[in-house]
């Protein structure tokens, strides 16, 4: 497994896109390994619709991914694209 996960953004895009809420969601998913909308909502105190909107954006940015697992039934499972053992490097293109 690579020791780093590199994600590249346009200049200033990261600051515009990464709110405190999104960073909290990203950290929770990374720290727990998997999450559901319900677990994220409960852990962060955010409404399920707010969590859904924000994780969909994080997925579009390539920071998390969705999968299905029989352990969670019909719930969407949210997983990080990097592990605790990896560093997430965010860089901007100039």
TrEMBL record:
- InterPro entries of this UniProt entry? WH-like_DNA-bd_sf, WH_DNA-bd_sf
Recorded protein name is MarR family protein
């Amino acid at each position: 497994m690579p020791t780093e996960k590199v994600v590249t953004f346009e200049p200033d895009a990261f600051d515009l896109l990464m709110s405190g809420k999104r960073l909290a969601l990203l950290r929770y998913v990374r720290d727990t390994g998997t999450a559901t909308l319900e677990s994220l909502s409960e852990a962060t105190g955010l409404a399920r619709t707010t969590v859904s909107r924000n994780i969909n954006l994080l997925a579009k940015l390539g920071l998390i991914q969705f999968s299905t697992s029989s352990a969670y039934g019909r719930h969407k499972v949210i997983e990080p694209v990097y592990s605790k053992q990896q560093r997430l490097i965010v860089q901007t293109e100039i």
